[in-house]
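Appendix B, Record 12. Input sequence as logged:
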Amino acid sequence: MITALFPALAAALLLTGCATTTPTEADGIAAAAPPPPGALKVETMKEVTRTLSSDAFEGRMPGSAGEEKTVAYLIEKFRAAGLEPGNKGRWVQDVPLIEITGRNFAPLTVKGGTQPMALEYGKDWVGVTYREEDRIAIADSELVFVGYGIVAPERNWNDYAGVDMRGKTAVILVNDPDYGADTLDGPFNGKAMTYYGRWTYKYEEAARQGAAAALIIHDTAPASYGWNVVESSWSGPQAYAQRGPNAPPLTLMNGWVQKPVAEQLLAAAGRSFPALAAAARQPGFRPVPLGLSVSTQFENVFRSFTSRNVIGVLPGTTAPDEYVMHTAHWDHLGRCTPTPDGDDICNGAVDNATGTAALVALAEAHKATGPARRGLVFLAVTAEESGLLGADYYAANPVFPLEQTVGGINMDAFVIAGPARDVTVVGPGKSELDRYLDAALAADGRVATPNPKPEAGYYYRSDHFAFAKRGVPMLYVDGGEDLVDGGRAAGEAVASEYTQNRYHGPKDEYDPAWDWTGVMADLALYYRIGRSLAATSDWPNWVPGDEFRAIRDRSCAAATTGC
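Logged structural output:
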């Protein structure tokens, strides 16, 4: 999972629409009717989550035997739920990928400072390549500290100003310059991370600058996850979308280095990490050559393969060419760094067998209710853990045209913590879908809570983002943090325990003792929202001024049908 795990870890702006009165049919919103009694089945959630996260599925790595079992199982469950094949008579959409596995990593050696250093792979640093080359060799590449690695002309910010990065290695801070702000005010939206704070952007920008390599300094707080997550996610096979002609440039290597190691490295260069970090937050920052060079090498093996998105649909009645989307990713990490007891299967029970199970449970409930005015699409995407690859491939090659896709709901990692009085929304205040959320919350007697960690940037870290950046409004709602049993302290404890002990590790396993009442309450909320969108003739848009509004407006203006 590249996105929010629990509300205490999710990124969001302050929710602006929660205090408004409940929207009505006059606002274009159909009544947020509850599902029929018994239509949402906890037995379905348990069965699908338990099955997908069992050792037999080997961690659901794309391109593995685990994928074969997963796709076959989801087709079986979609069919049994009453869905129809969603891709012109097929249940799947082929997603061409390439898997690159690095091996025989040499230490990352550092020369030129007060003393040479040899950084151990896995313990001190990790790195991968996106290039299809048998051997990667970086020899005496000059290190340049480039602050947050951002080039944002609209914000008058350029961390690469005045430096030629060709052949050099960029050393980059995680997050963006406003990290640690108390409010949402600032050149980079205050404490709410922008896309400039995401590692994906930083590597892309380093490549555009011509860098040979890019190393992000891992720091748990601004990254919002520990080194164990980096190590498990960035070692072993890495899947990428196959590159076509005229593809963007690539570095030789992208990687991470532990913060304490980076502090030692900078000290060897006669520099202070706190001083450089403070300077990087100021307008006018300029890159700092460190007088150090790094070298390493490793080998790669390649495997081209086709993974699959699984798609089912409940056709609409009077507006069959308009669609409401439901998304969740079926994949996880496969086999990963073993725990002391030898367990090396990252089962991904919470992340994201729960969200995949929700697709099946919601499909059953909507089928039990009967067809809606609009079509209801249930999309289980591949390769989210590799960078939203399945969702991005679908959004770039949509089965159902994006201008005919009304909007939808993304589900990633349900909170297994009992019922909550609230929900948390990733990216609230961005689109008119908030009106549907408001109506459903009011009908369920719950509230929305502003998220405590907008600095984590989770809006850019799950499958909804692939649709949002192409203009389709999507809701991403997390479970609540104000638990009925124990309040906010209990909710924070659940989130912390999961992140520290199970997230992206072998202990994210199914537990028969889980309390599913909170999950089922959230499912009922998603049902209300999806059913309302499917029943109305309304076309919700992004709010004026949102970064995705112009994209949607252009899409709608060019469409002959749909929005």
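The longest strand covers residues 288-314.
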